[in-house]
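Worked Example 4.2. Consider the chain below.
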Amino acid sequence: MRFGALRRAIPEVTRCMLALRELEADGLVFRDVRQVVPPHVEYSLARLGEEVRPVLNSLQALACLFQGGYRTKCNSPGFWRHAQPVSAWRLLRTGRGNAPRSLHGTSNVSEAQKLS
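Applying the procedure from the previous section yields the following C-alpha cells:
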C-alpha cells in the first residue's frame, strides 16, 4: 500500500504516525521502491510484521472493549476513526475504569458490557 493511500484510508493518523522508516528499520514492514517516474514506493508487512499481526488484532479488540461512545462496530474498517486508544491505554496502565471483569470468551462489545 502506498503512503498516500494509507493517509487517505486513515485520515486521522498524523504524518509522524505514518513514518514507516522506523517500522522498516525494525523489520516490521517492507519498503519496495519502484524505479519509475514519478517515484513509486509501496509498503507491505514483512515476516515479523505478519507475526505480530495477531497481537495487534488483540490490542484492537481490547481497545474496542474499553471504548466508550463507539459509533461503529469494532471489527469494521472504520473502527479506528472513532476509537480513543489513549483512553484504553490509560485504563490499562492505571487499572481505573469500568473494564469487564473477564475478557475470556467475549466476541463483541455487547457481550463484554454484560460482564462488567
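Residues 53-116 form one domain. The chain has two domains: 1-45, 53-116. Compare this with Example 4.1 before moving on.
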